[in-house]
Each structure stands twice: as structure tokens, then as C-alpha cells.
Amino acid sequence: MAIAGTPTSQTLAQRIVPRQGILENAWVYNLMLTVLGSWFVALLAQISIPLGFTPVPITGQTLGVLLVGSLLGTRLGTLALLLYVAQGAIGLPFFADGNSGVQVLYGSTAGYIFGFVLAAALTGWLAERGWDRKVSTTVLSMVLGTVLIYVPGVLWLAGFVGGLGEAMVLGVLPFLLGAVIKIAVAAGVLPGAWKLLGSEKTRGS
């Protein structure tokens, strides 16, 4: 594993989803993965728990973002999150708690949404280089992706809550335990799936 260099030949999604039938067409295959990735994030966004003291809810979105980026790779992961944002903006109830509309992209939590795109791009780039195949590197990838969600989220939130310090209190600290749990889930799922695929390949050889 190296930070830079030649990407691995396939992402996890490409290993799991065979290119057969109509999916032999690269455009159709990539479109399907991109759309499904965006819908997966939208589905987890509906796991939403509002907190009375902060405009930022607890959601499953961040786990979805980290997984989609790692599953699809840099290009498709980024496109999936851009599509997710676009679908929510045009009125589909894809944002947290079923919210939608362009106004969400100007609201207090908009920074997190834009951070989703950055996080998917980074975790996808790292996954293409094998970071999702070992628990230790998956954890590091998920931590870096989470940071890329929180940084623009907090910077944007600061303009709504009276400063950076308050934004940290309201937009980061209440969610650290949840972030640890999500990272642990991803660190179990991704390397575990690769290990299972490797075992199946060995049995089939």
C-alpha cells in the first residue's frame, strides 16, 4: 500500500457487481453504480435524530458517504455525491430528515453537504490504492474523510452560530462518539468484504 502510485485494478463495488448483459456497456454500468451510490446516501440520510441545542442532526449520511466513496472510487464516488446533492436540490427528499430544495444548500448545515463530496473523493482515491483492504488503513481513510466533512461544515456553521468556537461545540463535539462508531463499522465492513471475496476466489480456483 502506498499513498501515491498505481491504483488497484478494481474497486470493491466493481468486484461485487459483475459486468454482464446490459451492464457490459461501461456507460450503463457506471451510471448504475453512481445512481445507486447517491440513493444509498439518501437512504441513510433518513436516519436522522434532531438535537434541540444544535441545528446539526445526528444522521447516517456520513457513514453512507464514507462507504460510497470507498466502494466506488474517486470518480464515481464524487459523481454519486454530486448527484445526491443535485437530486436533493431539485426537490427530492434526499437530505436529512426528508428535507429538500436549494435553500438547504444555503442553510446552516450546507458546509457538511459540500464536505460530503470532498470526503467521497478522498476515500475513493485511497480505496483505489488499497486502503480499504486492511483495518488499519481503512480506519485512517475514514478518519481523513470525516475530517473533510467536519472542516467545511464547521467553517460554514460558524457564520450562523456566532463564531468558530461555538461551531465546534455545536457541530463537532456532540457527534464524535457517533463518528467513532461509523468509522468502526466501515473498518469492519470494507476489509471484511475484501477478505470474503478473496476466500471465495480461493475456493473457486
Give the tags.
mainly alpha; Arp2/3 complex 21 kDa subunit ARPC3; two-stranded antiparallel ribbon; 205 residues
Q: How would you describe this structure to a colleague?
A:
The structure is a single chain. The chain is an all-alpha fold. It has a single domain (14-193), classed as Arp2/3 complex 21 kDa subunit ARPC3. 66% of the residues lie in helices and 2% in strands. Strand 1 (48-49) and strand 2 (58-59) form a beta hairpin.
The total domain count is 1
* Count of helix runs: 8
What helical percentage do the residues reach? 55-70%
CATH class: Mainly Alpha
Mean pLDDT: 92
Shape: globular
N-to-C order of helices and strands? HHEEHHHHHH
Beta-strand share of residues = under 5%
Most strands sheet = 2 strands, antiparallel
The assigned structural class equals mainly alpha
Question: Under the CATH scheme, which architecture would be assigned?
Answer: Orthogonal Bundle
Could you tell me how far the N terminus lies from the C terminus, measured between alpha carbons in angstroms? 25 Å
Q: How many β-strand runs? A: 2
| Rg value | 17 Å
User: The CATH topology, please?
Assistant: Arp2/3 complex 21 kDa subunit ARPC3
Which stretches are poorly predicted, pLDDT < 50 over at least 5 residues? none
Summarize the structure.
The chain has helices spanning 12-16, 26-45, 61-72, 74-89, 110-127, 135-161, 164-171, 176-204, and strands at 48-49, 58-59. By secondary structure, the chain is mainly α.
